[in-house]
Amino acid sequence: MAKESYLEILKQGVDVWNQWREDNPDIKHPDLSWADFSGANLYWVNFKGADLTWSNFSNCELVLADMSGADLTRATLKDTNLTKADFTNATLDSATLIGANLTRAKFNNANLNSANLSKSDMEFAELNDADLRDAVFDDANLKDADLGGTNLEGTSLLRAELKNTILADTGFNEPPKESRTKWIALAVVGLLLVILGLVFLPGYFANRDVMITLPKDTPAYVYWDGKPLAPAETTDDYNRYQISGSSLGAHQLTIFGGKISDFQTDEFTRHRRYDTTLTITAGDSIFYHPVSLQPLYSIKKVGNGLTPSIDPEGKFLIYTKTGRLLNTFGPEKKLYFFDIEKSLEHEILLANPGVYDVDWEWDRPSLLSGGKTAYLSGYNYLQKSVGLFRISTENGNISRIPLNLQKKWLRYIPRSANDEILIENKRFSADGKAGDTFTDLVPYKDILHYGGENGVLFFAQPDSQENQNRFLLDVIYQDLNTGEHRALWQLISTNQLPALSASNNAKRIVVTHYQGVTKDFFSKIQLWMEGEFVDLTRLFLDGERNFSDGTYAHQIAAVADQHVRRIVFEYESNLYLIDIPADITLADFKAADMPQS
Predict the structure, then answer these.
(1) Angstrom distance (rounded) from CA 192 to CA 507
(2) Per-residue pLDDT tens over the stretch 271-295
(3) What is the DSSP-derived secondary structure letter of residue 328?
(4) Other C-beta atoms lying within 10 Å of the C-beta of residue 154
């Protein structure tokens, strides 16, 4: 096959590509040389044995990628996320991996001759018996990495972090020293500076030490006149950064508030970029400058529960919980209400608790404005029917909406504005009567998503496509007041379509992406605004696994209020709330990201 044919298969998605590799075991070395994959999302991709020479993977997501036996000679993997990737027996001769995340990656028996891995994060990486001759690991993090039996002839490890690094059978004693010539040159320059300092008038080079302090629990990257600073001192409360002998005058201080990869817990606060010009004047020996960064957004655990939703005003949550085991069919189910401002939870005691027993499998509840009314749909296995219920969160009164629909699952959006329910592309009244059609488009798989109080989101196949590409879908926003709709972006159809939740007029959309195999996959929550995506969370391992509350299957789906200022999601039976300030823009998100080196 020609290289273009391989690329066409890959464009259909990682799942399609991996299945094709499995179905064609005779094609052991597909030619993908010189291909540009920069910025692509390639979780779990199977590139085993592939020809990837001179390929470009800059800024890619290649978590758990299988690169074993692949040829990546002179490939570029700069700032690429290669967490747990497998490069066993791979060739990376003269490859560029500057700033790559290689945590727990495997390079056993790999050829990394003359590769550049400076500033890379290789914590817990495995490099047993690898060829590292003339490779560059300057400023790399090799903590707890295993370099046993590697060839380190000519390898540069300047300023590399080697805490707990395994170096057995390498002949390594200490990091290679910089050349004598370089030190002589620096000494000469230093001597000239001393002579100049003695010749010119005292005070001409007047200076002061500068001390910058940041709270210790704030991950930060500090730059002084464009050069990075490392903490000079760490206390229980602060990190202190010091510039010794700074010249008087104006200096630029820039602080980036941490990358998502810096946060190892599900709860964290990302901060906005801090920029200021400091004017250093003559005075005391030390110039102090404390810094308090402003939040970009925060993620906080608010409780325990399953399948949460938030009301349009962002004040209340509704969710389910599992209780004691009733019988062999499953555990007891309960419905809960949470006041965000007061941080108070209470159970909604249903007036007819019989509708909430093990005969039903319930979907995610919905909460309307004011938090007084909830909707809950489910499938009854004994009656083999779908049901939609309206519930008062104040007194637990529950009524079934008479819908004559023969479905197993009901994809619906309730609206408080007109006291109506949207199902597929039709309107229904609160008493179950069918109304008009709100869109001439047919939602893909009948799935609807919340689009603010005045709209709805859904997937649809494009009206016209060259070659009728069945994998391509449009993400559509429909204005329910005007009837107008617009396509926002396109995606490739997979078994796991993303979950969506939008603000009014779809100015902000929360997107929960799923990537990986059917029973074990990664989820990531992103924000779409001004036509671009930004990451809000780290990767979550989802799928069919045993959880502490006894549940087995899990899939994250973030749900937002009508402004997308508050977003709720559940992971491993814990409820998390994302708070985004109203004034945050795409420019703020971009400015907060570390610059590409």
Answers:
(1) 59
(2) 999 999 999 998 878 899 999 899 9
(3) T
(4) 13
